[in-house]
Amino acid sequence: MNPIVNGIPISFILGLAGILFSIGVLGVLIRRNIVIIFMSVELILNSVNLVFVTFSKALSHISGETVVFFVMAIAAAEAAVGLALVIAIFRHKKSTNVDELQSMRW
Amino acid sequence: MLEIFPLVVFLPLVGFLFNGFLKGRIPHRMAGAIGTLAVFIPFLITLGAFNEFRPMERTAPHLVPVFDWIVVGSFKSSFGYQIDQLSLYMTLIITGIGSLIHLYSMGYMKGNTSYNRFFAYLNLFIFCMLNLVLSDNLVLTFLGWEGVGLSSYLLIGFDYDKSSAAEAGMKAFILNRIGDVGFILGTGFLFWFGGSLQYLELQTNLSGLGEFSNYANIVALFFFIAAMGKSAQIPLYVWLPDAMAGPTPVSALIHAATMVTAGIFLIARLNFVFLLAPETSLFIACIGATTALFAATIGTLQNDIKKILAYSTVSQLGFMFLAMGSMSYVAGLFHLMTHAFFKALLFLGAGSVIHALHHEQNIKHMGGLFGKIKITSFTFLLGTLAIAGFFPFSGFFSKDLILEKAYTYGAYGTILWTMGIVAAFFTSFYMFRLVFVVFFGKDNTDSHHKVHESPWTMTFPLVILAIGAAIVGFLQTPHFFLHIDTLERYFAPVLSKGYELASLKGSLAEHKSLVRDVELSLAAFSVGIATIGLILAYFLYQRKQNPIVEEHTGFRKILFHKYYIDEIYDLVLVRPFLFVSKGIAFFFDIKILDRFFLNIGLSFGFIANGLRRLQSGFIGDYALYVVIGTFCILVYLLTRGV
Fold this sequence. Notes:
Largest interface: A-B, 13 and 10 residues
Order of helices and strands of chain A: EEHHH
Oligomer: heterodimer
Largest sheet of chain A: 2 strands, antiparallel
CATH topology of chain A: Helix Hairpins
Number of strands of chain A: 2
Strand content of chain B: under 5%
Structural class of chain A: mainly alpha
Radius of gyration of chain B: 30 Å
Number of domains of chain A: 1
Pfam families (chain B): Proton_antipo_C, Proton_antipo_M, Proton_antipo_N
Strand order of the largest sheet of chain B: 1-2
Strand content of chain A: under 5%
Number of helices of chain B: 24
Subcellular location (chain B): Endomembrane system; Membrane
Number of strands of chain B: 2
Main location (chain B): membrane
Number of helices of chain A: 3
Order of helices and strands of chain B: HHEEHHHHHHHHHHHHHHHHHHHHHH
Strand order of the largest sheet of chain A: 1-2
Helix content of chain B: over 70%
InterPro entries (chain B): NADH_UbQ_OxRdtase_chlpt_su5_C, NADHpl_OxRdtase_5_subgr, ND/Mrp_TM, NU5C-like, Proton_antipo_N
Catalytic activity (chain B): a plastoquinone + NADH + (n+1) H(+)(in) = a plastoquinol + NAD(+) + n H(+)(out); a plastoquinone + NADPH + (n+1) H(+)(in) = a plastoquinol + NADP(+) + n H(+)(out)
């Protein structure tokens, strides 16, 4: 395995992906605006994509990049459905604050 | 008549169903007539069959298969009836005396609101009893056996709104169940050994089995335990005196003439087993003699007219078992019949007295009735002479035959005979005590009501039974007097096969022969003993010279309280049982079992209650759970090393 990718050590890229992932998770956990939460989810997916691409390059193997395309396709579909839901909820509740959306509990 | 013989069993069933289902819709007179006819017509049919069967010449039984009942593999049980000397004899007694008692009940029960129900029960009883005696296999006999137990329960507890009657019914039922375990076990063993439950097949199969004689004692003992319950022998006798809570005709029919003799019948029917079991037979004889003596002593101090007769019945049944145990089945069956006559007569006579005195049962409140109710008095006196064993009434011949057979029975014959003769003395004593107090002594009756003789429906059966009690003894007389052995020849076909099986030589069943003079002196001795009983009763209760009559101290107190047997049973069996049951019901069940299972349920509820707090509805919370979960899985995988 080649520890250097395009002149950058692999640990740097993995560290960036970890930071991006953490920011994403933190955003999902602490933000109230549902659109921001969506963006944070995208951030998580992108960090994973970054890891996949990095290892694909380092191992000189195509399968990692293939998975990335799948992830991107699914992320696009998810965003389409998710945003449609967000609009529907907003029309109903006049709010995008997730704390006000708790009518589905027991 | 043999072709329509199943009607004998069928008609009482029809009577039961008719009266049972239409009990509210038909008049009393009609219910009584139907109930009586449902027993009387079978009696006529049986008489016809008896003639046609020619019992003195025929040796093979006549089998009447009706239908197959249970067929499983080699096990087969059917509704089939066996007509032979023994079953015809029993059927004649049951239907004959039964129809007289039905007729009597029509008068006795008049005015009772549950008149029709009473007749329905009586017919059910007759139906079950006939199944018991006529069946050709053990299973059907057991059906009848349980059936009479049920009917007895229903009839004892007939006045079910009185708690004493309801309790007496239950007592009879439960004590009988204890005995019936023996019946079931015995039946199982016989099927195991003999491969069949039909009496005839068993008889032939067992004769081929040499080793059966090793087990015969156990099988016989089981059947005797069953007989103990039904026929009220020590230690299961306590239900019979209590059973007097039922109406008097019931006492006469069930507790004197028919059901209680089922044990005797069972032994006679299975004589081929009992003959192979000399040790058990000796045991039966001992129990019989003890019961005869024991119950007779209790009878001497009781004050309830029906209780005296009840203890007398227990005592007489003891005599019958003494005969069965000493392997002289003819003597036992003979006494069964004479006892059916005179005890039914005595019970019905007592019922007539009770009826005349408006349901007074305490003999202390009676007296001087002789002459006021003539037919009842004379017939009762005749019954007393018969039961006390005075020559030439029926009781003399049958009791004397038993005592004679006991005397010649094996090594312990003399002891058994002594116990029997003492019991006979007490019999004479308590019966004449009853007669003197009720019919001759000072008039203690409540004079508000006029004493009246009973209607003809009640006196007619009394007269017929009195004639029977006087003359049926002549069916079998000792050698020194006429030397009639009709009964012995009559029963020979039923019993001889068993005797062949046992091959009497050297066994206990072989009776020593008796010299004519000894026989005569034995008979004279028993009559003498009965006379002494009479005289003693006369001096103690008619002349009233002795103050001990009214005082109950020392042993007399124990006697008066029936040896405290009921109290002992209560203390030793009933109370510990109740204590344990209550412990289980109110401590173990509620405090331990219920608590255990309830708490399992409650704990799930508790856990769920805690878990539901996790479901807050906030998306952020759920996301946090996902993160924490993922983190935990990761930590686990890392520490375990993938």
